[in-house]
Design a protein that fits this description.
7 helices, 42 strands, 22-stranded antiparallel β-barrel, mainly beta, five-stranded mixed β-sheet, about 700 residues
């Protein structure tokens, strides 16, 4: 970090010396537009040209169009965020990474991610209709706490801003005109604002049918990890706010459920003939997979406290993910049933409690110097059990974290310099437990692991011309490997939790430089990053299908670009592009000559689209996504893990149109416009030899929507 810090400081001095005075005299003609793009995921509201890093903000209008095409949160991220991997189109999000690493997902600041026992089901936690915008901070960050080694994805919910009471009804219907392929959703939003009081209430019900690929064959249903096909869901959301002069108190509650219907069973594919996994009517064994999310937060803000602004958030988050039944060898126990006959279901449960305190003071001591300081406290108790037999697979992980932080920002003329430090003091306690019979019924002595680590960041932004800025920054993120995956697989006698080196923390450093332009006719961003972790975490699948955590160094380097051009009020063209190269080693000290697989890294990706307002109240969108071929680790193995992967890229085209009328807004979309037959990136790469997990993607799908406010 020292060379970059020196370079940033020197560049700032050289750039500002001859230009600071001139900048003050020149009007910034794009100041209004730049200031309108503000993000809050940095703990305080900041215009994007003050942040030394790549930032993506997905607006409500962009989300509405994308959710009309596919009501899939990860597909929206993959469309608008260059470094986000392709969507799995499933309830599970395994392989959906950001810049080759895992992001920290927030919902109004409440952490949804579960890094200590990553069940990879955190992508579905709320209805898309209540989301106002999504803020994405790309690259490792410690601003929001543990888990953001790939970046931060913060979902911001809507807030009433217009006086009076408004009722909004929204509906969506989608079909492929095949048997049981109808998806439908309806929701009601009540928005009320009266003086200092505002209320937003929302309720929705959703049902999803089966899907079909481009050849008309039923898509394979993931009856174990979880699927959005053949499912039902509902959401109840309430936000109540009250302003008291310069103060505000706000309560937010969210209750979300998504569960399979259990009407279809998986049909294995035929790898020799190139036939992917399919489905047929039938009732799988056990209970269908489901997600159950309960979140609550109490927020207090004081905008004039000791010359600064105070924000306090108290939150609670309960999450339960039930997986489908399987008779995998891991679940077998002779004491319960003959080998091969025992079916059981995994369930990941976590209970989070936390507090976030942030105080920001502008013009501290001197004009232009801002201090942001605060304290975060987190209590996270995840565990994994087998729902059918009541056995413990992963004991309760009692995690506690206390993290004070301080950030300084100095703005002089066209230059903003930021730097800060966060001190993580964390402790993980685990009681004595016994592993499953498949691991030898080993008794693992309980114990604790403590971590104390300072994570730093430094960067600078130079606005060298109206609308133009360049940045350089270095930031560290703090995380832990999947501790549950480590602890449940202990197969060596006389182990203790305290002695397991695999529980050492992951510190990822992201160095990045870039250039941005924002003007009345569009915007452009280009960045280059280098992300490194000396003691990373890589999951490798053995020949027996068991995932093992390997603590080896990882490096991800890449380029990202995004652009939008608006030649006139009726036309806009947009696009994103990303190429990344992730490397790791077979073991500690070995050469960094292995490519990161699909569990960690997505393929090179480009998106190109256009919007045309062909009438004052009507708009048409056409967009194409291209994923590039990827062939890696040819002939390479580590132990019994085969690391070779092959991916044949594909291009998908979508279209959508909306009309605003006196009867409401109508929408029409076609996903996979040309009905292309393809197998998804993850299925081609990581699951290429698994006849039960080679999933094709959705074929042509027509969707209609209607919303109206009263």
């Amino acid at each position: 970090m020292k060379p970059l810090a020196g370079a940033v400081a020197a560049a700032c001095l050289l750039m500002t010396a001859p230009q600071a005075a001139a900048w003050q005299e020149q009007p910034r003609e794009n100041e209004g537009e730049l200031a309108s793009v503000v993000v809050t995921a940095t703990r305080t509201a900041k215009a994007v040209d003050r942040i030394p890093g790549a930032v993506s903000v997905i607006t409500q209008q962009e989300l509405a169009t994308q959710y009309l095409i596919a009501d899939d949160p990860s597909q929206a991220l993959a469309t608008y965020v260059p470094g986000y991997a392709p969507s799995r189109q499933k309830m599970t999000s395994t392989g959906e990474s950001l810049r080759g690493r895992q992001p920290l997902i927030l919902f109004d600041g409440i952490p949804q991610s579960n890094p200590l026992r990553a069940g990879m089901r955190e992508g579905y936690f709320a209805d898309s209709a209540i989301i106002e915008r999504i803020e994405v901070i790309n690259g490792a960050s410690a601003m929001q706490g543990m888990g953001a080694t790939g970046g931060i994805i913060n979902y911001i919910t809507k807030t009433p801003r217009t006086e009076g009471t408004t009722y909004t009804v929204n509906t969506r219907l989608a079909s492929q005109f095949e048997s049981d392929s109808l998806d439908w959703k309806t929701g009601l939003t009540v928005s009320h604002k009266s003086g200092d009081v505002d209320v937003l209430a929302f309720a929705s019900v959703q049902r999803r049918g089966m899907g079909y690929d481009g050849s008309g064959r039923p898509l394979g249903i993931d009856a174990v990890q979880g699927d959005t096909m053949d499912s039902h869901g509902n959401d109840l959301f309430l936000k109540i706010g009250r302003n008291f002069g310069n103060q505000r108190l706000q309560l937010t509650l969210n209750r979300f459920d998504l569960a399979g219907d259990g009407d279809y069973r998986s049909v294995p594919g035929n790898l020799a003939e190139g036939i992917p996994t399919s489905s047929a009517p039938g009732t799988p064994i056990g209970m269908p997979p489901r997600n159950k999310v309960r979140s609550a937060s109490l927020d207090y803000r004081h905008h004039e406290l000791a010359g600064g602004s105070l924000a306090v958030q108290l939150f609670g988050h309960e999450f339960s993910a039930l997986y489908g039944a399987t008779n995998t060898s891991t679940f077998q126990d002779r004491a319960l049933a003959p080998i091969g006959t025992l079916w059981d279901q995994s369930q990941v449960v976590t209970d989070k409690r936390g507090a976030r305190i942030t105080w920001a003071r502008p013009d501290l001591l001197v004009q232009g110097l801002e201090l942001t300081a605060g304290l975060d406290w987190l209590k996270d108790n995840p565990q994994q059990r087998l729902a059918g037999t009541g056995r413990t697979w992963v004991p309760e992980l009692k995690f506690r974290s206390l993290a004070p932080f301080a950030q300084l920002e100095y703005e002089f003329g066209p230059v903003t310099v930021r730097g800060g430090v966060r001190f993580e003091d964390a402790k993980l306690d685990v009681d004595t437990y016994t592993t499953l019979a498949a691991y030898g019924s080993r008794r693992v002595e309980g114990g604790s692991a403590e971590f104390s680590k300072s994570v730093k960041n430094i960067g600078a932004v130079w606005r060298f011309a109206p609308g133009w800025s360049v940045f350089a920054g270095s930031s560290e993120g703090f995380g832990l490997p999947d501790a549950g995956l480590v602890l449940r697989g202990v197969a060596v006698p006389n182990q203790s939790v305290s002695s397991l080196i695999s529980l050492q923390p992951i510190v990822t450093r992201n160095n990045e430089v870039g250039i941005n332009w924002r003007g009345h006719q569009g915007q452009l961003g280009l960045s280059r990053y280098d992300s490194r972790s000396k003691l990373g975490s890589v999951i490798r699948i053995t020949s027996a299908g068991i995932g093992l955590v390997e603590r080896v160094p990882t490096t991800v380097k890449g380029w990202e670009a995004n652009a939008e051009w608006r030649p006139n009020k009726d036309w806009s063209v947009f696009g994103t592009w990303a190429t990344l190269d992730g490397k790791t080693a077979a073991s500690q000290g070995a050469p960094m000559d292995l490519d990161l697989g699909a569990r960690s890294q997505g393929p090179d990706k480009s998106v190109l689209g256009a919007n045309w307002r062909f009438r004052p109240q009507a708009q048409l969108r056409l967009q194409a996504t291209h994923l590039r071929d990827r062939d890696i680790n040819i002939g390479r193995r580590v132990g019994t893990s085969n690391l070779e992967e092959h991916f044949k890229g594909y291009t998908l085209v979508d279209a959508a149109a909306t009309w605003d009328t006196q009867y409401g807004r109508f929408g029409l979309s076609v996903e996979n416009l040309f009905d292309k037959q393809y197998v998804g990136y993850y299925s081609q790469s990581a699951s290429a030899v698994d006849v039960n997990a080679t999933y094709a993607g959705r074929g042509r799908t027509l969707a209609l929507s209607w919303s109206r406010s009263f």
